[in-house]
Amino acid sequence: MNVRWMQNTVGRTAIVVCALYCFSIPAAWTQAAPAAAENKPADKPAVDKAVLPPLPAEAHIQQQIQLDGKTLKYTVTVGALPVRDHDGKVAGEVVATAYTVDGENRPVTFAMNGGPGASSVYLNFGAFGPKRIQAGNEGDSPSDPATLADNPGTWLDFTDLVFIDPVGTGFSRASVPEAEAKKLFYSTTPDIQYLSRVIYDWLVKNGRLGSRKYLVGESYGGFRGPRVTHYLQSQLGVAMNGVVLVSPYLNPGQDDNEDLSPLPWMMTLPSITAAHLEREKKLTPQAMADVIAYTRGEYAESLLKGRSDPEATNKMIARVTEMTGLDPAFVKYSGGRIETGAYLREVHREEGKLGSVYDSNVTSFDPFPFAPEQRASDPILASIVAPLTTAMVDFVTRTVGWKVDARYNALSYEVNRLWDRDNDLRKGSVPDLREAVAADPKLHVLIVHGWNDLSCPFMGSVLTVDQMPVMGDPTRVAVHEFPGGHMFYTRPSSRDDLRKDVKEMYAKH
Questions:
Q1: At 411, is the secondary structure helix, strand, or coil?
Q2: C-alpha to C-alpha distance for 65 and 131, rounded to whole angstroms
């Protein structure tokens, strides 16, 4: 896995990564100064190219929204928490945006996105914060007004919300040279450890250790979710009551051995079929149940038979052609194995458009239609970063009044470039998920996906949970799917259904 992990979602790398967002303009502040010249004394330590001004003190503002016909008043707090190295020295600052409502015994929910390199603005202004903007759907443009409106899908009426921006994203930053930042922040295990400590520190600072506690992670944040939960539970002595994993990157090894294993193709066929059913206005839970049954059964069996049963192969190719609506020759010469990058260029080719790996029914024009592979940015990423960034910077600096002199990284190329794709990452987070659930018989885990997502296909989570042992109540770990893609919550009906499912899970405690 390398920098193409997130780049242009070409080929099967889209599934290997399965991470939410990964692009941004490099952040120059992480660069260390060049080494001293040979003739200069060596007894002075290297210094950063620029001394950054300190981040402001916490800022607060009172706001309100109309929710279900009632006025909900709340406090917004924006501020930074220090992150320390092994010697106790401050090595970075993590900025959090918190929404709290007066009242006793309210739960608190911590939320983070993925990338690596994504801030939490996507969940904040897209999914369940009290305000939202319209972005991420077919027809939305990066130059659309970044206007915040009350969010009827917010969770704030039943839980306080804390959105965390990992170091290098949002306004969060390292205060050490690049080499040290890589060790402390930009690899699998240190990332889990410092983010867990940030949650612990926020709870202590705000006197909330006694509250019911929940964690939400999207995409690579969904990879973080089980590991942070288990680390908090087993090392920091803080137990989560529930976890919500949104389009999670749980199991990196699922798509290995694509020349032999049927699993990579079993993961993507249902999402490709869902997008076709949606275009035909035939997408229903029952239709998808039939697709899943075929994928688990006859499709997998036919792939495993291969050349030993040509009749089964031909039947499978005909069925896949019908399910996906793709050109019969394309499906035939693909062997019924629909490669993601090729599909995204093929599905809307007659319109001169590309489909997004995050939802193939969201499109943009292909500026390089005759190139051998996709050269343009993903349609959703190209349209969503600008409005979300504009909305967040304006909200934090003008509305809340947190007057920060820094650039906001909704998506950071720099973090993605520096990230250490180590063997620990390839192990995935399913072992931690199993251990956390086994240790706490009251812990509930809700895994949610959009049917159209090809970056983190829902079938990957279905197959993963299928193989988990039943530990007490089998509904404690559940997979729910919704119309839409990776960010299915940008669709009002799916966002409302997500709110309903999450509220039901929280009511169990």
A1: strand
A2: 8
Q: Residue 387 contacts by C-beta under 8 Å, 6 or more apart in sequence? A: 133, 135, 140, 142, 144, 145, 146
| 238, 232 contact by CB (below 8 A) | yes
Residue 63 φ/ψ region, left for φ over 0, alpha for ψ in the -120 to 50 degree band, beta for the rest: beta
Q: Which distant-in-sequence residues (6+ apart) come within 8 Å of 76 by Cβ?
A: 60, 61, 62, 63, 97, 98, 99, 399, 400
Structure token pair of residue 6: 């997130």
Please report the DSSP string for 335-374 in residue order.
TT---HHHHHHHTTGGGTEEE-SS-TTSEEE-S-TTSSS-
pLDDT digits (tens, 9 = 90+) for 233-285: 999 999 999 999 999 999 888 777 788 899 999 999 999 999 999 999 999 99
**Residue 396, burial from CB neighbour count under 10 angstroms (0-12, 13-18, 19+):** buried
Integer angstrom CA distances of residue 422 from 182, 196, 251: 12, 20, 14
Query: pLDDT class for 51, splitting at 50, 70, 90?
Result: low
Given CA atoms 265, 267, 268, 271 in this order, what sign does their dihedral have?
positive
Sign of the CA dihedral running 131, 136, 139, 144 = positive
Supply the angle between the helices 285-294 and 310-324 in degrees, to the nearest 10: 160
For the stretch 469-478, pLDDT in tens is 999 999 999 9
> In the 3-class helix/strand/coil scheme, how is 426-474 assigned residue by residue?
HCCCHHHHHHHHHHCCCCEEEEEEECCCCCCCHHHHHHHHHCCCCCCCH
The Cα–Cα gap between 493 and 467 comes to 31
Averaged pLDDT, 10-26: 36
Band of the pLDDT at 202, cuts 50, 70, 90?
very high
Residue positions counted in the chain: 509
What are the tens digits of pLDDT across the range 378-393? 999 999 999 999 999 9
Give the C-alpha distances (Å, rounded to integers) separating 367 from 141, 364, 374: 16, 9, 9
- What amino acid occupies position 55? L
Specify the 3-state DSSP secondary structure of 409: strand
d(CA 395, CA 170): 13
Peptide bond between residue 116 and the one before it cis (omega within 30 degrees of 0): yes
Are residues 240 and 233 in contact, defined by beta-carbon separation less than 8 angstroms? yes
pLDDT on residue 276:
98
**Structural domains in the chain, sorted by start:** 14-26+51-252+384-506 (3.40.50.1820), 253-373 (no CATH)
